[in-house]
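User: Predict the structure for this protein chain, please.
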Amino acid sequence: MKSQIRVLGIDDSPFRFGDKESLVVGALVRAPNYLEAVMKTTVEVDGTDSTDRIVQMASGSRYREQIKAIMIDGIALAGFNVVDIERVYEETNLPVLTLTRDRPDMDEIGAALRKHFDDWQQRYDLMAKLDLRRIETAHKPLHACGVGLDWRDFQELVAMCTVRGAVPEPVRIAHLVSAAMVRGESHGRS
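Assistant: Here is the predicted structure, written as structure tokens:
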């Protein structure tokens, strides 16, 4: 994999469940940690527009030709606004990887979805569609799913973009920026 690859890291901002929308930030980072651009959009809390918004963010950016991969903090933004990463890949022609620190309890997620959404099955299917695999880091393993690259290349990409701890810089920076834009300063883990 080419050194200094440019990766678009995406994370949502803190929100409350009474909010209609949540801010979503994209941090374009040249590996390992050089921030080149910051982008923003919004998604509906518990809505269904996250896939479209990510496609628009990546495809509509003046940096489009520089972006070589997308990393998302989790498979859902703003609650249960689930990202169809296969569709993002198909529409942008960019490899997509979702990352999470903790392995999700899919039984618990399924129960929550059934309780709150008429379209719970579609949301659950998007979340469970791809195998969640472990990526070892120097700190703590991550759990991830991705499309568009061999798994070994995804592992190399995560290692290349991780400076300290377990979270790759594109996602970590998107997390810090999104929290600061909503709360006035960043805090918490990505």
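The domain at 6-183 is CATH 3.30.2170.10 (archaeoglobus fulgidus dsm 4304 fold).
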